[in-house]
Amino acid sequence: MVGIIFFLYGTIFGSFFNVVGLRIPVGQSIVRPRSSCPTCGHELTAKELIPVLSYVIQGGKCRQCQAGISLFYPIMELLTGLLFLVTYIHFGFSPNLIIGLTLCSLFIIITVSDLKYMIISDRVLLFFASVLFIERLIFPLTPWWSPFLGAVVGFLLLLFISVVSRGGMGRGETLSCML
Ligand SMILES: [Zn+2]
Fold first, then answer.
1. ∠ CA(38), CA(42), CA(47), 5° rounding?
2. Which of 47, 130, 158, 173 qualifies as a FRET site for 69, CA 20 to 30 Å off?
3. Are 80 and 10 in contact, with CB atoms under 8 Å apart?
4. Ligand 1: distance of its center to the CA of 171 in Å?
């Protein structure tokens, strides 16, 4: 029963993560404008914003202009629902559940922008890095410094690759900014 709630909330969050992943890399606000049909500009009503269900009920089409809606949206919503469910089953009600859900959220958002633009936004990464940093301060591991050591080692490894590849890593973002 609780699992179902985690799944349903996951699909709602997934719908929001689609918006975040699609808008942040192109510098748009995540609150305005409201979501609309990319073909006819029809603003989506509450009834059309129900994760997965709206897509199924409308047969994957815009109610106004009948243009096809990408399967990408309901798939990401379902995936988020499943990830939230699995995280709950794995951790139960524990501090790690919060950390797990945070990581799933980060994973979905960067997957959306990576698939759509081949960009993983620094703003998203920095935001989640701070959230995870604070969460780990509140819920420390034993020893408390182990996650921070892991973070430093991970950073140095990526820095090493970046230096060796002479900035080849992350070039996608630099190029899109220049274009
Ligand atoms: Zn439309």
1. 110
2. 173
3. yes
4. 35
Please tell me the distance between residue 95's alpha carbon and the centre of ligand 1 in angstroms. 43
pLDDT tens profile 23-62: 999 999 988 888 999 899 999 999 999 999 999 999 999 9
Ligand 1 centroid, distance to 36 Cα (angstroms): 8
- What's the 58 CA to ligand 1 centre distance in angstroms? 12
Question: Can you give the length of the chain in residues?
Answer: 179
How far does the centroid of ligand 1 lie from the alpha carbon of residue 102, in Å? 33
User: 114 pLDDT exceeds 70?
Assistant: yes
Taking the centre of ligand 1 as the mean of its atom positions, its distance from the CA of residue 63, in whole angstroms, is 7
What is the rounded CA–CA span in Å between residue 124 and residue 116? 15
How distant, in Å, are the alpha carbons of 7, 89, 92, 164 from that of 84?
6, 9, 11, 37
Beta strand segments in 114-165, E: none
- Rg (Cα) of the chain, in Å, rounded? 19
Is residue 138 within 8 A of residue 99, CB to CB? The reply is no
